[in-house]
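call fold target=DUF4350 domain-containing protein
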Amino acid sequence: MSAETVETPVEATEEAAPQKIARRKRPRRFVRWRLWTPFAVVAVLLVLAVIAVQSSTPDPADTDYASPTATGEFGASALAERLHARGVQVDVAKTVDQLGALTQAGPVTVFVPAEEMLRPDQEDVLAGLPPGSRVVMLRPPSGRLTYLQNLIVDESRSAAGTADPGCGIPEAQAAGVAEVRRDVYRPYKPDQGEAAIYCYGRSMVVQREGDVETVVVGAADPFLNGRIDHAGNSALAVGLLSQKPRMVWLDMHRREPHPPMPEFSGETHEQTYDPPPAADWSNPLYSALPPSFWAVLVGVLVTLLALAFARGRRIGPPAVEPLAVRVPAAETVYGRARLYRRAGARDTAFQALRDGAIGRMLPAVGLTSKAEPARVVATIAAKIGAPPDDVHGVLYGAPPQTDQDLLNAIYSLDTLEAAVHGGRRTERHTK
């Protein structure tokens, strides 16, 4: 093959090779983006969902929450005005003592929008109301429900939905469809839940214990300014609170401090410990945190699990697969030689040739790849009858510095390998 025929494809290959390499690398830069983009979108959607749920869920500790004087979205001034228009006398109690004082004059409706603000020792004020009274509670804690009403939250939604009454309670029948379906209740002990009347898909429960009727509503939306005019919310809220000519509104947004302990008189009394009744079978940590927190936690865990599967390494040994394209060995050799030439890497190119020649000569002289260079030189020199210094220079000498030195070194290497195998010397080429 002439020098001109070798030079012609060299330039084309040298220019095409970087472009091919660049085209192969370009898709890999987007692999990580393609992998992370779906998870990033899911994370952003989860964050937005949490923000939306939190912004639409009122906090009972907020002083505006279901307050008869608050005009904001989570206030209940519109409900108070409609009760006044219905002819109901609305008295506001800020403390439990005020509530007890206002409920002694006869049957009364007590509205408790934030029942969790009552201490456990203050629950007796609701049980000691005059006969014929009614208590309306909004989304009380699950533990209080179990203790007071033998109820438990069966499921809870992130936002209130509409539902049909589904019961014969006159107030619910008059209101029709209302936005009550958020907390869904069921009896804690089924054998003791026959006296309860379930409305709105079990999101409103009416129970009578003795002469006092208790209504548990699973959503606060029908009573708040922002949602009172939707569906039958107004008719339901006003109907539940206007059955008595007088109503007491417990407008509490923080727990009252415990009374001081009596001073120790020095007398000892034998006391027995009576454990409190079981309030709830569920984990208190689960009840303490909002359902939206657990929904976000589950979403994050699923996202991390999917990411672990996507980023995880394959279990087991690598699988052997056939190449998509077969490349002739000559093209590989020519390609590597042209890369070496373009980089001016004469030493690297010649060292590759040396390693290949030594690997082919060692079996011919009875040596292995672990043999020391000195032993290799001595054995090859003894076999072909050449001076050891000449053999050492060919196999382990200094690398060539010019193209002509490279050609001469390759000629010497081919001649030495031919002599070891008993063949003829290759024809020497010059520039």
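return ok
The chain is about 45% helix and 15% strand. Residues 3-29 form the longest helix (27 residues).
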